[in-house]
Amino acid sequence: MLGHVLKQMSANKLRPKRVVRRRHPKLPPEGTRESLLADFKTARDRMVVTWLDDGGFRIGELTGMHLIDLHLRENARCGECRSAHVHICHRETNANRSRVKTKQDWVVQDGVVQGGAIRRASSAMVHTYFDYMTTEYPSQVTHGMFLVNLSGPTAGLPWSTDSARKLLRRAGYRLDLGLVRPHMFRHQFGSDVLDAAGGNAVIARDAGGWASAQTVEEVYGHTDVHDPAFVTALNTVWGEPS
Question: Domain residues of the chain, as ranges?
């Protein structure tokens, strides 16, 4: 059959795959956020990418959130943060078995969550939240959890960490990005905040909820080997032109 009458041609298996550079093995491939946002069809999935990238959440923190934990308007009633933020609360009874690593004390007073680990929210996070809640979140849900399944027999039930990991892994290989894990976004967030803060590990620690500033320095205080400043420094030591 002639090629011009075919509706679809099989892929050339000999064609080399697109090579996507990683600055560090723990970081997502360059352009991952943009590629995933362009590819994902649901508001929930686009929101998950945005929240992982902008908030540096552990995946268990994100899938373990309840709607009551989200204070995405300024001057929330909790009085603990003037800007949009979320409370990360450890719960042993989540229906999807999600757990958060940190176990800071928290309470609900007059229907308002107070305490837990507080993480600020970006404008993009707030925007994707409202997009998801107004277009996809089922009105009949009563369990109060934030992320839910959108289709099939489990529609409306809490979304699991395993489902989130599979979503990113499948998309990574489908888009020729390679392996994409949720925690890679946390590593990227830590590196970006540390860079933006001029190496101030205390700021990065508080922004991402790490246990100590030393942990931030040891894990995220690495250099991009392709950074012009890094290359120039080595060439200077070697006596080679930059």
Answer: 32-181
**Of 132, 141, 145, 131, nearest in space to 60 by CA:** 145
Q: Which of 164, 166, 208 minimizes the C-alpha distance to 189?
A: 208
Q: Return the structure tokens found at 22.
A: 């990683």
Q: What is the pLDDT of residues 193-231, one digit of tens each?
A: 888 888 888 888 888 887 788 877 777 776 666 778 778
* Integer CA distances (angstroms), 151 to 37, 137, 142, 172, in order: 20, 11, 17, 22
Q: Which CATH class for the 32-181 domain?
A: mainly alpha
Region of residue 54 (left: phi > 0; alpha: psi -120 to 50; beta: else): alpha
Torsion from C-alpha of 129, 55, 164, 66, nearest 10 degrees: -60
Percentage of the residues of the chain whose pLDDT score is greater than 70: 88
- Residue reference for tokens 């360059």: 30
Q: Which amino acid is at 27?
A: L
Residue owning tokens 């205390």: 202
What 8-state DSSP symbol labels residue 128? Answer: H
